[in-house]
Amino acid sequence: xxxxxxxxxxxxxVEAALDANGFPTIKFEPVSPPRPEFGxxxxxxxxxxxxxxxxxxxxxxxxxxxxxxxxxxxLIQKCWVHPPGYVNFSSIYxxxxxxxxxxxxxxxxxxxxxxxxxxxxIGIEHTSVNPNKALHYGHLRxxxxxxxxxxxxxxxxYEAQTLNYIDDSGLQVADLIVGFxxxxxxxxxxxAEKYDHYCGDVVxxxxxxxxxxxxxxxxxxxxxxxxxxxxTSDTARLASKITLRILAxxxxxxxxxxxxxxxxxxxxxxxxxxxxxxxxxQLKNRxxxxxxxxxxxxxxxxxxxxGEYEGEEKVxxxxxxxxxxxxxxxxxxxxxxxxxxxxFGYRVFTEQPDRSRLWSTTVGQGESNxxxxxxYSKAITVIDVRQGRLQRIIGRILSDLAGxxxxxxxxxxxxxxxSLSGKTVEELGLGAGDKQTVSMSGRRGIYVNADDVLDAxxxxxxxxxxxxxPDEDDAWLHGTAEKIAVAAIRFExxxxxxxxxxxxxxxxxxxxxxxxxxxxQYAYARAARIIEKAGSISSVDSADFSKLTDPSEVALVKxxxxxxxxxxxxxxxxxxxxxxxxxxxxxxxFNTFYERMPVLKEQDETLKAARLALIKAFQTVxxxxxxxxxxxxxxxI
Length: 637
Fold this sequence. Notes:
single chain; 637 residues; alpha/beta; Gyrase A, domain 2; Isoleucyl-tRNA Synthetase, Domain 1; Rossmann fold; 7-stranded mixed beta sheet; 16 strands; 49% helix
């Protein structure tokens, strides 16, 4: 990779110059300067050494430059000092451009791939939506974030596996059983309504309203919850039936947005295999839990975690003997890291749209020769910031159980929640009052179902696509519209900083212009159209890359050369936004180039060939980058 190679050469030259001057060696990284006239890379080491050497930064930089020897055959053209003490470098551009473009074309689908993982297995848990309702739009941030992390880590040489935790023994499922058994709700939805929509939008929401006035239902909930813990009971079997039916609908939504999974972990299986009992005994033996004989939590088993000021006690077993959700999360986390024996069997649950097998845990004998799942070298849990305290407690407990062996292996990748704009809440008839934003709540019925958003964006994309392609058949129009809809939603959710709350606005979600996924897709299709009209770029051998001297061409070449460094940054920081923003910048540079430079009408055949090769290199980078974000690249839109 040209940019990485140039950085390496610059670093070696500066380190050698520091040694030749007798200056101390310190850590530094060459960076891209803010303006093109400052060169391709800049080093601030003189600024960092000035105080230690008791010299002016400019003088330190002059000493460094005086000792720099540019090796023969390197990509470095020259270096110079820039006030107040930077050492700047420029590349031999014709060589840099040629190497960048040819490497991109030669490597194709693997351009930008970096082998950081070395085959290490990483488990990524995401989605894990309670199986009592449909996914709402806020859940999609979790899904696309976790799915993109899996894609990026796989591209970087890790064996990344995606886990989806199915809480089939919790309160939310119990609420549905209460609704069907005791509150008179019809077990079947009317008409063509999806089962997960019916259970969440009608039964779950209304039962939680009824709890406020009907004390008999609150008592029934406790009874149902106890019965669910006996996996042989009729209640447990009903819970399983409801869960699997809702899960099947949830998976359709997740597959539609482009996600895929390796393993479904069922909470009931954790209980049935008595993994929790083993962990509970370890916690008691090590004094990490205690039985409360008095006070607010009398009769409960609690864990005390120092530094948790929101209330240091955390109940793990209630006074009625039922386990809380943290009691089930602890053995699951311990299983991920191999801190307890794997007691699961595994079976094929279904085949996914990409033809891959989706496995699930089971109790007892599973299928022979399943894939290897846990233990993982690292376990990443993608879950929003509201679960931060729970995740800290789990991490601390794992540290106490495993000691140094656990350090940095359990990672909580948190993100801010998705809220609704007040305008959107009013449009949906949910009543926002004078609030500018409203947090989503499944229990209160304030949310927008993910399927509804996908359908709405699909309709908008279909209308726009049909306008541009009036003679195309309906199947092609709907297929393309779906790709655009998925791109619009995924890019919107991935381009944001994780610590930024996303405010969902229905009207803005339907806007296909601006810094959006469809904007990137349109640029890719535009490039494909140029290549198609050219007929071939087989004349690349005759290309004269030294003629790509317009600032728009130079900027595009240099941006393309940075792709592998961007991928590495995304891997290191678990940040798909790095790739999203890089792609937006690259596409913007391409559009500037497209508007300024003739390609098909260029009379100089050697320059025309170079521009066509540059366009093909641009296509490669955009296709590879969008694939890491889970966005398809249609050749025509």
